[in-house]
Amino acid sequence: MEWWYKLLEILPFEWAEPGRMIFMKNALLAIIILTPIFAILGTMVINKNMSFFSDALGHGAFTGVAIGSLMGFVRPVGSAVLFSIIFALLISVVKHKSKMSSDTIIGVFSSMSIALGIFLATLGGKSFAKLNTYLIGDILSISPEEIGFLAIVLVLIIIFWLFFFNHLLVVSINASLAGSRGIKTFWYEVVFSIVLAVVVTISMSWIGLLVINSFLVLPAASARNIARNQRQYHFLSIVFSVFSGVSGLIMSYYIETATGSTIVLISAIIFFTTYALRKKFL
Amino acid sequence: MKNKHGKNSDSVCQQKCCGFCCTKIENFGVTQGNTVILKDINIHIHCGELTAIIGPNGAGKSTLIKALLGEIPHSGNLQFVHANNGSHQIPVMGYVPQSLNLDSTSPTSVMDLFLSCRSAYPTWLMRRKKEVEKVKERLSAVKADHLIDRRIGALSGGELQRVLLALALEPPPDLLLLDEPVSGIDQSGLELFYETVSAVREAYDLSVILVSHDMDMVRRYADRVILLNQTILKVGTPDEVLDSQTFSEVFRLPTKSCKEEGKL
Q1: CB-CB: which of B97, B123, B177 is closest to A230?
Q2: Interface ipTM above 0.90
Q3: Could you give the C-alpha distances from A71 to A59, A75, A86, B215, in angstroms and in order?
Q4: Where would you tag: which of A78, A262, B129, B175 has the fewest CB atoms within 10 A of its CB?
C-alpha cells in the first residue's frame, strides 16, 4: 500500500499528506476499484430490466448476514454470500416456472427476506444496532487486505465480462432470437444473477444496503441517456461511476456526511444532466 | 436453381420427398395444460421452397414456430435430410422474430447486434476491421449497410426486419423461420422485405417457413400455402388454398369475395 500513499502525496488535500488519514487513502483506492465493478454489471442490469431484482438481492444478503451473526460469526459475509446465491437461484427458478410477473415474484421474495432478516437479528430481544453498518455502509473502515480482495474481484469480473458479455447481450435483446442461435438463455440468466448476488453481498458492508442498488443503476442509466453503442455505453458508465465515487468520497470528508449517500447524490445529478442533454447525443 | 445439389442425390431422401434435401416435420403436437394447441402437424419442406402458413388468430401459427425452435415442449420429430448423403439431423435454423419488443433507448447499434451474435470477441472492446467489413457485406445483401451504426431501437419496422433477416442468414441456415415479419411495416417496406426474402431463398437455396397475414403477398411469393387451425386444414399452391371453400369458411368470408379482398 506504500506506493499508493506515496502517489497520493501529489494531491493538494490535507488528508493526502504523508502519514495522515490512512483510512481516507484506503477508502479512495477501494472506491476506484469498486465503482468500475458496479458500472460494468450495471450496464446489463439496465439492459435486462433487472433493477428491482438487484435491489432485492441486497435484501436477501441481509437475511444471510442475520443468519450468520445468529450462528456466531464476527464477519458474517460468507453466510451472506451463500444465502444471497440461494436467494437469486430461487427467484430465477420461480420466475422460470411460474407465469406470474417477475415484478410480483421479486416483491414477494424481497419483502419476505428483509422481514426474516429483522426477525432473526432481533430474536431473543437482541439489539438491531450492530447491523446498522450493513444498512448505511462504511467505506472508511476498509482494510488493505479487503482492498486486495476487491482487486481480485475486479479482475474476475473483467474476465467474466470478456467471455459472457456477447451472449448476455443477445439474451437481453430477445430470448427467442438467442435461443434460435443455440444460446442457453436460462443458464445465462442464472449465471448473471449469481455474479450479481455475490458482488452486491460482498460490497454491502462498505456501501450500505440502502444505497447499493443506485451504484448499479445510476451510472449505467446515465450512460444510456447519451450512448449510441455498447462501447460508449461501457466507457461512459465506468467514467460516471468512478467520477461520482471519487468526488463523493472527497466531498463527504469535507461536509461530513455518509460516503455512500453522497456518491449516490452526485450520480443522480449526472443522471438528470445526461437526461436533459440526451436529445443532443442520440 | 436446384441443380447445384449435384448428381449424387439418389438417396433415401428421393423416394420420401423432393429428391434433394428437405426438412421433415412429423407428427408435431403442442399441448399446454389441458388445451390442445396443435396436433398432427406433418410438413415436408423442400429446399428453395417458400411455404407460407396462414390461419386465423389463435390458430397456433406462432406456437408452431416456437415449437420448431425448441422453445416450448412438443411431441413429434423435426429432421433435416441432407442432399448429398441423405443423413438426418436437426436443421440449423435462422429465425426472424415477429418483433423484438425493443427498449427504444437501448444503446445497441446494428453492428453491436451482429458482432455479439457472430463472434466471441467482446462487443464492448475495440472493433476489428475484418469483422466490420464482413458485417457490412452481410448487411448490403439485404440493402441495409447504411444502418450499421444506427441504434436498433431507432430503426423503422422494415429496417429492423431486414437487419434481422441478415442476422438469421449468418451462419447460413437449413431452414429459415419468419414469424409475421411484416406486421407494422408500410407497403414499400413490405415489398422490399418480400423481395429480399425471395432473393436470398434463391441465392442460398433455402427452405423458408413464413407465418403471414398478408394474403396478397402470400399469393405473389409463396410456393406453397398451409392453412392452419390447430391442425393442417389444407395444403397446396397459393391459388388452390386461398380460393378454396375451407379458406372461406375459416376466415368466414363469402366464397366469392376472397379473391377481391386478398388482404385480410
Answers
A1: B123
A2: no
A3: 19, 11, 18, 69
A4: B129
